[in-house]
Specification:
It is built from 4 helices and 3 strands; from the N terminus they run H-E-H-H-E-H-E. The protein is of the alpha+beta class. It has one domain (16-91): Ribosomal protein L7/L12, C-terminal domain/Adaptor protein ClpS (Ribosomal Protein L30, Chain: A, 2-Layer Sandwich). It has a 3-stranded antiparallel beta sheet with strand order 2-1-3. 24% of the residues are buried.
Length: 93
Amino acid sequence: MSVETLEQRSTVRKLAPRYRVLLHNDDYNSMEHVVQVLLKTVPNLTQPQAVDIMMEAHTNGLALVITCAQEHAEFYCEMLKSHGLSSTIEPDE
């Protein structure tokens, strides 16, 4: 019969890897449409935050929308795409 040490008994909780949802600029959607889609898609996003994200993508070609777990990132990316926006995800290094 072995005696377990505290290290052996406690389970180490690893954080799920985080992913960045990126919005790409396009020449098709109006700024208002982009802001409205962001507000509909991403929970707890405020109008000023959505405007900032849209302007970042408009100015620099790319903007960070949100960093979250992979499953959520994939969902947000697909929702943005379903509304005609260009979006990708990448690991948050």
